[in-house]
Structures are given as C-alpha cells and as structure tokens.
Amino acid sequence: MSKLQKGTINLEEYQERVKGTIEKISELNRSELASCVIHRRIILDLFRNGLNIKEDGKFQLESYLHQLIYPMRTTSEDMPYENHNLWLIDEKCKDILLLDQPVVLAECSSNGLAFDSVVIFELKRHMRDDYNMEENPVNQLQDYVEKIRKGKVKDSRHRPIRVTDTTQFYLCAVCDITPSLERILQKMDFTQTPDNMGAYGYNKLLNDAEKRNKVLFTKLGL
Q1: First to last CA, the chain
Q2: Which of 6, 14, 73, 105 would you label with 170, given CA atoms 20 to 30 Å apart?
Q3: pLDDT tens-place string over residues 165-205
C-alpha cells in the first residue's frame, strides 16, 4: 500500500503482490468469513419467515424482529458488535444508546459533548393497517426527535443525549407499507423511491439487506 501510494510500484508488480497476499490467507480466516456469511443467510431466512402469517392466523409481534435485529433491553456497552444484526438496517449502525420505545443510535462528535448524528428506528408489527394521521410511525419518530432536542431522553447511563442545531437525525420505520400508512404518506408528501417499493423515510429492510449480501451468498452457494 505504501509503494502504491508513493507511485513506486508498477501494475505488473502490484498484481503479483496482490496474488501472493491473497494466497497467504489462512483456511481459518476463510472459515470465519464463511461462518459470517452463513450466519447472515440464516438471519435473513428467519427474518423472511417471521413476515409470514402463523398457523393461528396472526402475525409475529414486534419483539420477534426486534430480537433478530438487536436483543431487547441491551446496549452496545454489553452487546459486542458481532452478537447483533444491526447490519440488517445499515452496516454503519454500531453504537446503541438506549432501547426504550424506538431504538436510538448515535455517532459522537470529536468534542465528546454532543452527537453529530442520531439514527432512530421504530419497529412495527408487520401488516399493521390501522394507522391514522395522529397515530403513525412518522409522527412517533418526529415526536421522539423533539424529546431528544428538549433534553428529555437519556442514555443507558441516565445521561441526557446531547445534540445541537446541526445534529443530523435519520429516522427509519421498519414496517410494511399497508394501505392506511400509504394514504398517510401521500398526505405528508413523501417522495416515492425510483423502484416504487417505498418512500423517503422508509428503509426497505429485507430487500436491501439481501441485495447487499447477495454476492457473498452466491460465492458460498447459499
């Protein structure tokens, strides 16, 4: 890398070095990578299965998906990165501040006093179709932002979550787009995504996660 950055290595030498480096990867590392990919395939299969209706004619509760994504009543202080599945939502999601109603993640600023960005995601029971203009994921997420801005939300250490006027908030509702929610989003002037499968403010969780990991699954024949 050093020679490449300095421009003191030609393409042929670079290719030989890359080939040699790849050949040195141990079987153990390959096995660990395979285990990681298999784990992701299983989690996605469990997630997809959890979206299906049960034998009793009901859908799974929010807690089913919650446990798959991140164990309830835990934070990143007691839950190692490799033991949760926040990659389902975003590979960058690592640091959990609290798990109350919505889940809050944040990236601390360099001064350690306020957060540069805050991600809030709310899980809803799939196929829920009783939303209205007062009770819906968009309003709930926005209300939670207001609570954070007013200093009414604390982290797992009971310290207030500090934000500034420049803190960026990213809101994500993990839910199905049912007719009642679709009507609300139209009234709120949400913009549809190019594939018409969602709107700005949504995260097409399962499809996006499978697309991001597809090449890995293909390599292992999963």
Answers
A1: 33
A2: 73
A3: 888 888 888 888 899 999 998 888 787 777 766 666 544 55
- Would you state the structure tokens that stand for residue 164, as one six-digit string? 């500034």
Interior CA angle at 76 toward 116 and 156, to 5°? 80
Q: How far is the C-alpha of 74 from the C-alpha of 32, rounded, in Å?
A: 26
Bridge partners (DSSP) listed for residue 151: none
pTM for the predicted model, two decimal places: 0.58
Here the contacts of 110-116 (C-beta below 8 Å, separation 24 or greater) are 113/162, 114/162, 114/163, 114/164, 114/167, 115/161, 115/162, 115/163, 115/167, 116/166, 116/167, 116/168
State the helix-helix crossing angle for 27-50 and 205-220, rounded to 10 degrees: 140
Q: Within a 10 A sphere around the Cβ of 163, how many other Cβ atoms? A: 22
SS3 label, residue 110: coil
